Amino acid sequence: MKENYCLQAALVCLGMLCHSQAFATERRGHLRPSFHGHHEKGKEGQVLQRSKRGWVWNQFFVIEEYTGPDPVLVGRLHSDIDSGDGNIKYILSGEGAGTIFVIDDKSGNIHATKTLDREERAQYTLMAQAVDRDTNRPLEPPSEFIVKVQDINDNPPEFLHETYHANVPERSNVGTSVIQVTASDADDPTYGNSAKLVYSILEGQPYFSVEAQTGIIRTALPNMDREAKEEYHVVIQAKDMGGHMGGLSGTTKVTITLTDVNDNPPKFPQSVYQMSVSEAAVPGEEVGRVKAKDPDIGENGLVTYNIVDGDGMELFEITTDYETQEGVVKLKKPVDFETKRAYSLKVEAANVHIDPKFISNGPFKDTVTVKIAVEDADEPPMFLAPSYIHEVQENAAAGTVVGRVHAKDPDAANSPIRYSIDRHTDLDRFFTINPEDGFIKTTKPLDREETAWLNISVFAAEIHNRHQEAKVPVAIRVLDVNDNAPKFAAPYEGFICESDQTKPLSNQPIVTISADDKDDTANGPRFIFSLPPEIIHNPNFTVRDNRDNTAGVYARRGGFSRQKQDLYLLPIVISDGGFPPMSSTNTLTIKVCGCDVNGALLSCNAEAYILNAGLSTGALIAILACIVILLVIVVLFVTLRRQKKEPLIVFEEEDVRENIITYDDEGGGEEDTEAFDIATLQNPDGINGFIPRKDIKPEYQYMPRPGLRPAPNSVDVDDFINTRIQEADNDPTAPPYDSIQIYGYEGRGSVAGSLSSLESATTDSDLDYDYLQNWGPRFKKLADLYGSKDTFDDDS
Which residues form the signal peptide (predicted)? Predict the structure, then answer.
C-alpha cells in the first residue's frame, strides 16, 4: 500500500560537537505519529501502540558562526516512497528557504549557505513536502520542522557602564558595601556555561573586594583615612564559562572616593602668637589673626574661636572669619600705653560639628596664648570732662567770664595746649576764649528772651602739633533777669450796655484780663493789676485783682449813653513778681453798646443809632427815588449829545498836523547825527501812544502794534519813515484822502534827494518811482502820477 507509505527524514550532523545521548533524546521528542500501527517497546518493557508516520524526523541543528569553505549540511529529508528513481521532488519553504537554507530536490539534503548568528536569530521554521516531479502533485501533506542555531561562546561579557563612580565614608568598617557593578553576556544562558559570569577584582587590593556572583564591591581594610589617600581606582573583571579557562571576559573601572568625617581635631601650628596695637587705635580695629589647622573639610573642618582667659578679656575680642577659618583679634576698648603696655590672652579653637562616633578621638579643640604689646602714639589732648555746662546772666557786660574748659596732653611729653572756639557753632561771635588757660568770656550782652541756651564747641590742640586736637561741647545757659514788664496777654476790648441811672449794677465783670511776661517764671507771675494812682478813684470803672494772675474790670455806675460818650479808654497798671519788680500801663477800650432786654448786644455804632432815631423808612425811600431820577436825566443828556454831528475837522492849536520848524544852521546830511533831533519830526502828542482822528468817526478802536514805533530819540530817518508808512497802511480809521506832511528839514548830501513831490512833475528827472507801488494803497495816487512811462503807454 503505497499511499500508506510515509517519508522518513534522517538527520545528518557534520562536524557538530554534541553528546549522542542528548541528540537521541532530542530526536525522540520530535517524531510525528502516523496512522499505521506498529509496536515499540516503552519503559519497563511496556508495549506501546503507535500509528504509522508519513514523515520521520527530529529538530535540525546547525552550529553558529561556521566559517568553513563548504556549505554546512543541516540534515536530510527522505520519504519511504522514494525508490531512488528520481520521480520524487523535495520542496523546502518557510523562513530562510532559498536564501539561507537550500535543499537538493533529488536527495533531500538541506545545506546552510550563510554563516548564522544565534544572537541575531535563534531558530528558523521551515515546511517540507514531497511532490511528483512531473506533475508537481503532492505525494504527502506538507510538514513543519525547526532548524535551531546552536550557540557557541562567541560574546564576551559587557558592563552596563564603562566607568563607575562611588563614595564611601572614610574609616568605614570592613565589608561596607560601596557599589554594585553588573555585566551581561549575549550568549544563550540555557545552553552550557557561555553566559555564566563570575566577577573578580584586578586592581584595588587590598583596599576593596568584590563578590564573585553579585558584583558588589566592599571595603577590605579598616580605618582608611581620607587625609592619607582620598581616591582609589579599582578594576573589576567579569568572565563567562563560570570563570574557567577559555572563557571570555570584560572589565570596567570604578573610581571610589573616601568622603570626609570629623575624625581630626583642630590644632594650632604654634603655641604663642605675638601681636601689637597702637594706643591710638579705635575700638573695632583689627589687632591680628590666629588660625588652627583642621585637615577635615566642609562642615567637619569648621572652627570657632573664643577667648577663655587672660588679663585683656575686657579690652579685646575675637571673631571667626568663616571664609579663611581664622580667628580675628579686635580691639574692644581703647588701650593706654601710659597705663599698661602689654596684655595676654588665651584663645581656644573648637570644631563646630562633632561626630559622636569619633568622640573618643577628642577633645576636638585646642588653645594658644596671644600676647599683645601696646605701642605708644602721639595722642590728641584730652578734656577733663566729656562736656561742659556754664551759666551767665543776661545783659551781662562784655568780657564777663562764663566758665573754663581744661584739657591736657596724655603723652609723657605733656605738650602745652592751645584753645579755640569752633566758629561754625558761634556764628554771632557771642564768646571768646583765652587760648592759654581756656577761660570763656562774653563779647556782647546776651538776651535770654531771644536765646536761653547757647551751644558752642571748643578745640584743644597741641602747640607743637596742631593736627593733634580734641573737641568738646560747651552748653551755656543764659540766666534770666527781670528786664521785661508784663503786658496784656491779648488785645482786650470791653462792652457795656447803655442803661438808665435807676437800673442796678451787674456783678459780672465787663471783661476779664490776664498778662504775659517774657521773663522766666521767677521774674514773671504773680501779676498785680491796678489803676494808675491819678485815677484810682475813677467814677466809671474799677479793677479787681483775682490773685490768680487775672483781674476783672467792673462798672462803678450805670446810666451809660452812646449819645453822651460811646467809647472809654481805661489805663491799667500791671506789675510782675520779679526783683526789682517791673510794671507797665496798658489801655483797655470799653465801648457803650445798645442791648436788648436780656442784655444781648445789638449795636455799638453811635452814628447808626442817631440815624435810626431821625429818619423814617419813608424818608429813606424818597432819597433813593431822587437819586434814581438824577441818574436817568444824566443818561438822557449823554445820549442826545452823542446824536449831534460834530465837525469833520476840529481846529485846535494842539492838533495842528503841519508844523514848520525853522533851523538857522545847515544840517550835515545823513552822516550828521547831532545837528537835529528826529523827535521834532514827530507829533509830540503821539510819542507815547496812538492819536485818534477827529475828522471821522472810527468804526472800531485801532491799537498800534508794539515794536513798529521807533524810539523817540532815534536818529534813523529811514526807520522813522517806514514806521509811519506801516501805520498809515494799517490804520482803518484813516480818511479816504491823502494827508500831506511837510517836513522843514532837508539833509545836505543825502543820497535820497528831496522828499517833496510838489515839483517832481515839472522836472525831467530820470528817477524811478516804481517803488511807490509797494508803499500801500495810501500812495497809489502818487504811484500813478510818477510811475514809469511804460505804465502811461499801457494806460493810453
Answer: 1-22
Of the candidates 656, 672, 653, the one whose C-alpha atom is nearest the C-alpha of residue 745 is 672
Q: Decide: 151 and 123 in contact? Cβ < 8 Å.
A: no
d(CA 371, CA 342): 7
> pLDDT under 70 in the chain at which residues?
1-58, 500-505, 606-616, 644-715, 732-767, 787-796
> What gap in Å lies between CA 67 and CA 763, rounded to an integer?
142
Q: Give residue 5's pLDDT.
A: 30
If you write DSSP's letter for every residue of 302-325 in order, what string do you get?
Answer: -EEEEEEEETTTTTEEEEEETTTT
Cell 550557540 sits on residue: 151
Residue with cell 506501546: 48
Q: How many CB atoms lie within 10 A of CB 460?
A: 24
- Residue reference for cell 485818534: 692
Rounded Cα–Cα distance for residues 714 and 717 (Å): 8
Cell 561556521, residue? 66
Grid coordinates in use for 443?
A: 563779647
As a dihedral over the C-alpha atoms of residue 649, residue 652, residue 657, residue 659, rounded to 10 degrees, the angle is: 150
Number of CB atoms found within 10 A of residue 549's CB: 21
Q: Read off the amino acid at residue 131.
A: V
Q: Measured at the alpha carbon of residue 124, what is the angle toward residues 123 and 126, in degrees to the nearest 5?
A: 150
The CA-based angle 462-464-470, given to 5 degrees, is: 20
Residue 113: CB atoms within 10 Å: 13
Torsion angles phi and psi, residue 792, rounded to 5? -65, -40
DSSP-assigned beta bridge partners for residue 128: 92, 143
pLDDT of the residue at 502: 57
User: So what's the pLDDT on residue 414?
Assistant: 83
pTM for the model stands at 0.42
Residue 403 C-alpha cell reads as 566758665
pLDDT at residue 429 in the model: 93
Instruction: Look at residue 596 in the predicted model and tell me its pLDDT.
Output: 83
- Spatial contact of 284 and 317, defined as CB atoms under 8 Å apart: no
Contacts of 210 (CB under 8 A, 6+ apart): 181, 199, 200, 201, 216, 217, 218, 236
- Asked if 219 and 173 touch (Cβ cutoff 8 Å), the reply is yes
